[in-house]
Amino acid sequence: MPAKEEKMALNLEPAAELEPELAAYFEKCREKLGFVPNVLQAYAFDNAKLKAFVLMADDLMLGDSGLSKLEREMIAVAVSAVNHCHYCLTSHGAAVRQRANDPVAGEQIAQNYRAAKLPSRQKAMLDFAVRLTEAPDKIEAQDRQRLREAGFSDRDIWDIAAVAAFYNMSNRLAAAVDLRPNADYHYWAREKPPPQAARRESPTAASPLAAHREPTGSGRRRRRSA
Predict the structure, then answer these.
(1) Residue 83: its pLDDT value, please?
(2) Is 225 exposed, middle or buried (0-12, 13-18, 19+ CB in 10 A)?
(3) Per the CATH hierarchy, to which homologous superfamily does domain 68-190 belong?
(4) I want to staple 63 with a disulfide (CB 3.0 to 4.6 A). Which of 59, 135, 177, 214 is the partner?
(5) Which residue ranges make up each domain of the chain?
């Protein structure tokens, strides 16, 4: 019999009963992902904390934004790489591979995003997120101006900072409790995708990530649940 999968180092009993809304959320995870992410199960000892985490994570990663969902996952991975967060590198690296439809993309961002062939816009975005992670006291007006010159609005800059800040918090909590990723994440989007003629014809063909930028303004997608 395989060993029981460990979620974290702390022994916190789940709440006696999840609130109906949260129980439905867990069921939706099982339906869409095939499992409940361990980070959610780690919060399940307290309904209020779990609800706060879910609301914040969903708003940042799935809500309206000038940043695509892929770009937000890229920020999560780049920040987690600085913090060497095993859980987030595994789970959000898988999400980058899946959203980019590229099994190489997650590893490139996780190992060294500077080695990836990113558009200058995304490079500037990750440079800012990493600087905010490594030296928040050194952020200056010129750092925000570089993002504006790369095409980001002030609202976009807020979103970049908010996602980076959230994953710095999440990384540190994951380290404190030795949070372990679900094994399923390791196998997401690992197969080589079929050739795409559109990529060969596109001027941004060198970067499969560039093709997944979502429109801003009226083209932003509405928030959806997990």
Answers:
(1) 97
(2) exposed
(3) AhpD-like (1.20.1290.10)
(4) 59
(5) 18-63, 68-190
Whole-angstrom distance, CA of residue 224 vs CA of residue 214: 15
Whether 80 contacts 88, CB under 8 Å: yes
CA distance 102 to 191: 8
Distance from the Cα of residue 82 to its chain's centroid: 14
N-terminal to C-terminal alpha carbon distance within the chain: 32
Roughly what angle, to the nearest 10 degrees, separates helices 69-83 and 154-177?
A: 40
The C-alpha R_g of the chain, in whole angstroms, comes to 18
Instruction: Kindly state which CATH superfamily the domain 18-63 is placed in.
Output: AhpD-like (1.20.5.810)
In the numeric block, which tokens belong to residue 136?
């928040």
**Residue 225 structure tokens:** 């649940």
Greatest Cα-to-Cα distance within the chain, rounded to the nearest angstrom:
57
Distance between CA atoms of residues 29 and 37, nearest Å: 8
| Residue-by-residue DSSP string for 132-191 | HHH-GGG--HHHHHHHHHTT--HHHHHHHHHHHHHHHHHHHHHHHHT----GGGGGTT-S
Q: How many CA atoms lie within 13 A of 11 on its CB side?
A: 0
Residue 17's CB: how many other CB atoms inside 10 A? 9
User: Is the full-model pTM beyond 0.85?
Assistant: no
Contact assessment for residue 164 and residue 179, using Cβ atoms and an 8 Å cutoff: no
